[in-house]
Every structure is written in structure tokens, then in C-alpha cells.
């Protein structure tokens, strides 16, 4: 038992260790339990979404047109457990101090507050919603979030100021700033995450807030990004802009894809159409941080981090330098035209020639519309790629940097009657005039209604079968000999209306529509931009389609007819002491409009109108037979409203020269003219070249898409091309020869002067061109100027753009040859 002392010592040591452990456990669980419980409650983990940068938009030469820069946002978070009056007062003081820091450094906080003073100085709820239902829903949610469901509206502002301990000595403007932040916090409280109260604040603000982080309760800094548009107004309609998500339904759609509520998204242009490629907000692209925070919302430590993935880059087909040339040329062209129109209006001769129309304008308080807007498109005819595209007036994208625009600038462009935000190159749809004549020529040749040797002379008035409508060519009667014995080449060179009346009448509207469709003029071009309009060629369905609602027709004529009929029926109701139900009037009007698409000529219409009025309006036979409204029988008045909704032979011959109700877009015109000069290949318009991932991998390399090929038309297209060449020929006395006489490029063209009213200055100016015509064409330029007076007056835009492009191409070829020679040495 000599080891017994050792066992005793070991036992004492073991008992001592367990005694220390027990004492420590007692200390932890009993003595320090409250302290540790408080610490545990003051700490929690939070998963924070981490978002990368939005993708960059480049031009064809990899020049950045839109990109993200690193920025810093100020965020506010109120811990839900801190809801006492003292807590709210503490947060409010933090908000006040933060606003002062931000504003002292030239930045601003959010200022969207849904209480506004009315004209009597009373605070009223006003969220700015256009729908009464949406406004009511917002007010209900707002009151619920602020726990003010029963507070009278006029007491809401003062109640909020008391509830959130806003000092009384602050002015109302500052109080609104404070409440705007509280509103943002309360409205997004269900997300349990910080809300952004100031964006892109700069490092000075960041450093000051970080230094005072212990006293600025609930405030934190988030690393973010801000959108930059380095080229200002250049290509603004193409690039588009970004801003915060707006609208309840839109927000819900984005939230379903993982977007946060304060995400910045594309609103127009490529920013909008390529949103799914550019955005870093898609759920699978977002990263995350798991952090430990205290009850003041401060991050104590980072537990884990998963890096986000940036959005993809988009490379466009446009050349920024060519884009700048096109935009500048178009703006100058419009200014020159307008100055010329203003001078012409002052001349005695012009005023005498337009005396009657001017008197009508004066009576109605209408002014003559002059050239103030337009569009131009430059396209590669061999691929459909957009080389440049301009819409005027334009707007400055740099004003939209950071996802926000100042209210002053927004009001300036919003109140501009010419609507600078409207992309006329793809959305403006208008009567093309004579630049449509190549459609008529090709259709007549291909369908056998015209041969290359056929000759047509201007015969003066053209017989349409309607004695009240016998159109003539634009040329003076004494000069008609110049339009004698014309083949299709001379018909185009002279832009002879009589020539195209003749072949248009022979081929009919169905064939005109068919060949316009084959050349891409009745469908969208599929350009990768939002809000492209669909061009169409006039025919019965375009004039009035029974299968479409009255307010969803291609022209305003059916709607105007319906308005006039309803006005007449209300007048009848007043006369008979009857108030007609609006739904009943809609049904009757629709039935009457549908008559125009039924079988039978117009002689059958009176009986059909009479039957509808008897059966659906319950008008007595005697009333219809004897009653005069505004000096006319009711049936005759109604028929006069719908007469213009039946397609006629007169409409067909006008459609053949690009008049009637035919309307096309500039981008569709560019595709059509490309097919004329490239041998009959109709391509989709393309403005996106590639999509590239953040790692440099090509996600999508877009190839030209040919949607139609017109085979067997080579000889006919060559004749049409020759006619377009002679339009600009001085030797052949082309209709636009004087405008192109000094051009250094071999340009083929066709002018279009589309009549809108009886005043010639209000004519639309169209010009379609391609070059060079002596070799394979490399560029098509289409110019459209609203109220531009005459087609040829748009020539300077096309000439400057084409000359610049061909010169740059020549320089590139020389450089390529020189580089090749040096490498071979």
C-alpha cells in the first residue's frame, strides 16, 4: 500500500477540479445568467444580400456608353424590439443628425412623403397614384403601418410629429425629410432589413457617419454602385436609363425574381430590353453575407461571405462617332428647314396661296406646325445591323445618372410638346409618301402588271371611277411633257404620281399589301428595343376591322366616327326626352360601323342603318322619315360619318404613291430600302451584337437574321436601283439632283413628301438613300422630318452621314493594307 498516498493526493486533485468546474457553472448559470442573457438578446445573426455591378453597355468599338461606378449609400434600420417612445425619440435624433451630415456635404436624403398640403394649407394624403383604387390601398397600408387607422386626415401630420418626437422648432420642410425616412422604414418593415435613405453620398459622408456610428443609432453604410452615362445626350434613345422600381404590380413581378424593393432597373432603351442580361439582381447572381449584429443594427463581425456575380455586358452594333455625326446632322437639318419655313410664311405669295386654309386655322385657334422633330436610321444593308439611329429632340442621359433625375429636368422634358423621350426612329409611324413607290414598282413587275419596257405618260386627271376624286400628278400641266413615255426607271426618277396611279390601280390593293409585306413593311423589324410600332399598308382591315374594338383600330377614323354618332344619339335623346345608356350606345355604334365590312356597295347602307335605328334605338318610323338634325335626315348624317371607312379604288391609287392611311416607321423603311439595294434580302433590324459574361465569355453572338428573300427579281431590282440613282443625277435632271450635286459619294435616293393637311409646310419630309451605288452598297440612311415641307429638304442629314461613314471605311481599309504590308516584310 505504499502507493496509497498518491491515490489520496490524486483523488483530492480530481475532487478539486470538479469543484472548480461546478463553481464556474454556478457562476455562469446563476450569478451571471441575467448579464449573459442581456448580451445574447443584444446580438443576432443576419443574412445580407450582396449585389454586384450592373453590366456595361458598349458601342461596336468597345467604347462604354453606360457603366456602374462604386458608390456608397446610407441605410437606416430600426430594430423591431426597440419600439418604446424613448427608442423612437432616439432614432429620430439619429435621423436628424444624419440628414445634417448628408446635406452639409451637398447630398440629399429621400423626400417622398405621402402627406402634402392642399391649397388651404391642410395636410392631405397624396401618394401620387393615378388610380383611385391604388391610392385608397396605399392609404390603408400606410395608416396601418403607422398605427393611425382612425386618425382624421387633417390631424395625421401633427400626430406623426408627436409620435416620433420631432422637435417643434424644426421647419416643416425638415420635418417632412424626417418623416420621409420613417415612412420608408415603416412601409418596408415587413422585410426586416435596412432601407436606403441616401444614395451615392461620397466618402466624406461615409467617414463622418462611421466616426459617429455609436451615436447614430440605426445608421449604416452600404457599398453600392451608381449608373454613369459618359456620352450625355448621344444615343440616349438607344441606351435608355435606369430608375427605381415603381408601381405595385411591377414591384411584385421584380420581387418574384429576387429583386430588392429599392433595386434600380432599366426603364427605356437597351437598359430596359436587356434588363435580364444587365441586372445583378437576379436571385442566382446575388451573393450573401452572414453577419452578427447588435440591437443597434451595427455589424459586430462577419461569419461568412459568398461573392455576387455581376450582370452581363451588352455590345451594340452602333458606332459612337457615326452616331454623333447623324444626330448633329439631323438637328441642324431640322433647324435649317424650320428657319426656311418661317421665312416662307412671311412672303405674300405663300400667304395668298394658303389664304383659305389659314383662315380656317385662325377660326379654330390652331397654329401652323413647323419642323421641330424627326428621326434618322443608318443601317448596314447586308446584315440589318444598325450603324447609328437618331431621334430628335433628344435628352441628356447624364441627368439620369445614379438612377434618379432632378424634378426640374424631368419637368423640362415632360412638358416639352415634342416629347424628347419618344424614340421616333422606331415608334413614330407616319405616311411615307413617294418613297413607298419602289414597293408599287416591284409588285407590279413581279405580278406581271408592268414590264421593263412598258411606257406610261402623264395623262392629267386619273380616272378612279369617282368623279369627285380625280387625282393628278404633282407636276404643273404645262410641264407634263416631261413625264411622257416613262418606263419604270423614268417613273421613279420623275416620281410621277400618274405612273404609279396607273400600275397601282391595275394590281389592286391586295397585291400592294402583299408586296409591302414581303419587303417587311407590315411587321416589326424585331430590333432589340422596346415600343417598336408596326408599320401597315392601307386596306379595308386597316381602315376598319370589325374584329377589333373601336378604340383599338389602326387609325383614328373609326373612333372619330363613333364620337360623332354618340353625339348625334345624345342630341336625339334630348329631343325625345330619353337618356340613353352608354353601353347601349356602344353596341349600336359598333353595329353601324360593322356595316362597312359587310357585302354590298354603299347603296345598301341606308336600309341597314335604318333597321339598326328601329330595332336597337327604338326610333319611330315617322321620326326617321321626317326628323331633321342639323338640316339633314338622321340616316344620311350617320352614313356621312362612316363613308370614309369603306375602302375604294381612289384609296388604292393613293396607297400606290404612299398616301392614304399607309403608315411606316423609319426603321422599317431602312429595312425595306436595304432589301431593294441588296438584291431582295429582308433582314431583321439588329442593334445588339454580343452579350458577354463578367468573366469575358461570349454568352450570345448574334448573327444577321434574314426573314425573307425575294427570288427571281434581279432584273427588276436593278431597274428600280437605276431609277433611284437617277433621282440624284444632275445629268438626268433627277427630282433631288440639286441637293446631291456637290456630294462626294455615289448616293441613290428616293424622296417622299407626304401630305397631311392643306398647308404644304406641314407635309412630312422623307428621304431614303443608299451608297455607294456603283459598287456593293455599304450603308442605307433613312431620314424622316415631321412637317419638313418636302422630301428633298432632308438631304443634308443623309449626305453628311454617308460621306463620313464611307470616308472612315476607306481609312480603315488603307490602314488594314498598310498593316498587312508591314507584317509581310
Brief summary:
This protein is α+β, with helices and mostly antiparallel strands. Helix content is 43%, strand content 15%. Strands 2, 3, 6, 7, 12, 18 and 19 form a seven-stranded mixed sheet that branches. Strands 14-13-23-22-21 form a five-stranded antiparallel sheet, with helices on both faces. Strands 1-10-11 form a three-stranded antiparallel sheet.
Kindly name the structural category.
Answer: alpha+beta
How much of the sequence is in beta strands? 15-25%
| Shape summary | globular
Overall mean pLDDT: 90
Gyration radius, rounded: 36 Å
Oligomer: single chain
Which blocks of ≥5 consecutive residues have pLDDT under 50? Answer: 35-41
Please give the number of β-strands.
23
Largest sheet: 7 strands, mixed
- The number of distinct helices, counting runs of at least 4 residues, comes to 30
- Binned, the helix content reads 40-55%
Describe this structure in words.
The chain is of the alpha+beta class and 825 residues long. It is built from 30 helices and 23 strands. The protein is globular and about 135 Å long. Mean pLDDT is 90; it is low at 35-41.
Based on the model shown, name its key terms.
single chain; 825 residues; alpha+beta; 7-stranded mixed sheet; 5-stranded antiparallel sheet
